[in-house]
Amino acid sequence: MTASVSNQSSAVLALFISDLHLQAAHPRTTQAFLAFLQQQARQAQQLYLLGDLFEYWAGDDDLETPYNREIAEAIRQVSDSGVQVFWIAGNRDFLVGDGFAQAAGLSMLPDPSVITVGGRRLAIAHGDAQCTDDLAYMEFRAQVRQPQWQAQFLALPLAQRKAIIAGVRKESQEEQRHKSMEIMDVNPAAVTALFDATATNTLIHGHTHRPARHLSGDGETARTRYVLPDWEYDVKAQRGGWIAIDAAGVIRRFGHDGQELTD
Ligand SMILES: [Mn+2]
Fold first, then answer.
1. Residue/partner pairs of 141-146 with CB below 8 Å, 24 or more apart
2. At 40, which CATH number?
3. For residue range 195-210, what is the model confidence (pLDDT) as tens digits?
4. Entry pTM
5. Distance from the CA of 193 to the center of ligand 1, in angstroms?
6. Is the dihedral of CA 37, 43, 45, 51 positive or negative?
7. Distance between CA 224 and CA 173 in Å, rounded?
8. What's the CA-to-centroid distance between 46 and ligand 1, angstroms?
């Protein structure tokens, strides 16, 4: 009896991943994601994709590309197996629309969102909106998140959109070399504002590629900010992992090898 009760309370309710930056040029990372869908995701009740699943997304008509179709179908199989799949857009795949959502069988959520898992109320976000020290990026974000800008961009031929995105990616890589580490991290005041606005004391986000558990305050004002890792299995020093919440509301972090992180 005791064993079954403890099994029940430790059953994973929800899984959180972000920043896989999936692309055909990264076959091992892709395989790691497909394996995660086959194994961990199917044991959960909910799977939250918190942004930058794709290295870039040029529009839902790019589902014709076999690679993108394969990823959408793999997520769809998880969804069809009874797992609820949720999506928050990242700064690289914010052009994902209803076409992809339908193909993948997932539900799109606003950034940030407040959810309740295992009795625990928490906020989830991609994390780029809190990087307010990067003024140039915030300006770019405000522009490209406008429905009118997106409609105009999506009206361009797919090949032209891909060429523009390739140009922006190259430019952004150049710029990041000259930006300080602080500018590319979340701003503490922006994080506090998110906690206040959502009336939560737990936040899970990605984007910064700095996996961590940050504690602030104490007692009733204690807040915990979990940062998801990015995934990169096509290099020697592999990175990846996820966060799990069980039926008792306990939050656990796992590394690229599936081992629980205890810090
Ligand atoms: Mn990002």
1. 141/91, 144/94, 145/94
2. 3.60.21.10
3. 999 999 999 999 999 9
4. 0.94
5. 20
6. negative
7. 31
8. 22
Cα-trace Rg, the chain: 18
pLDDT in tens, 56-112: 999 999 999 999 999 999 999 999 999 999 999 999 999 999 999 999 999 999 999
Task: Please give the distance, rounded to the nearest whole angstrom, from the Cα atom of residue 130 to the centre of ligand 1.
Answer: 11
Query: C-alpha angle with apex 120: 189 to 89, nearest 5 degrees?
Result: 55
Alpha helical stretches, state H, the chain: 2-10, 27-36, 42-43, 66-80, 98-104, 135-144, 147-154, 158-178, 188-198
Say what percent of the chain tops pLDDT 70. Answer: 97
- At 225-246, the pLDDT tens digits run 999 999 999 999 999 999 999 9
**What distance in Å separates the CA atoms of residue 110 and residue 102, rounded to the nearest whole number?**
17
- Rounded CA-CA distance 261/212 in Å is 10
Q: Tokens 């990846």 identify what position?
A: 240
The Cα–Cα gap between 227 and 44 comes to 20
In the chain, the number of structural domains is 1
Domain housing 74 = 2-261
Span from the CA of 43 to the centroid of ligand 1 (angstroms)? 27
